[in-house]
Amino acid sequence: MAADISMRCPDCGEMRDDISIRQMRRLRNQNIDPRCPVCRSIPIAAKVESRHLNFWVTRYSTEWIKETGQMIWGDEEK
């Protein structure tokens, strides 16, 4: 019986526990896509731009962001 191993998806970092040593060797030797089923189902990788990173800052005030964060995660200054 083949021993099961864990392999990490290169895109999302999720552990793939459902893979055997033989399957892992086949993936590496035949240059088959080693990503997990979820990442393989996404047609293209997401492209993150600066406008995405600044979404909240450009739409809401710093005070509103702080208050909302405190409501969600609690007061950090304790």
Sheet-strand content, in percent, reads 5-15%
Count of DSSP strands: 2
Strand order of the largest sheet: 1-2
Give the number of helices: 5
What does this structure look like?
Strands 1-2 form a two-stranded antiparallel ribbon. The protein is α+β, with helices and mostly antiparallel strands and about 80 residues long. The protein has two domains: about 45 residues, no CATH class; about 30 residues, no CATH class. The protein is about 45% helix and about 15% strand. It has five helices and two strands.
Give the helix/strand layout.
Elements: E1 4-8, E2 15-20, H1 21-29, H2 37-41, H3 50-53, H4 55-59, H5 62-73
Antiparallel strand pairs: 1-2
Give a quick set of tags describing it.
45% helix; 2 domains; alpha+beta; 5 helices; 78 residues
Q: Nutshell version of this structure?
A:
The chain has 78 residues and is of the alpha+beta class.
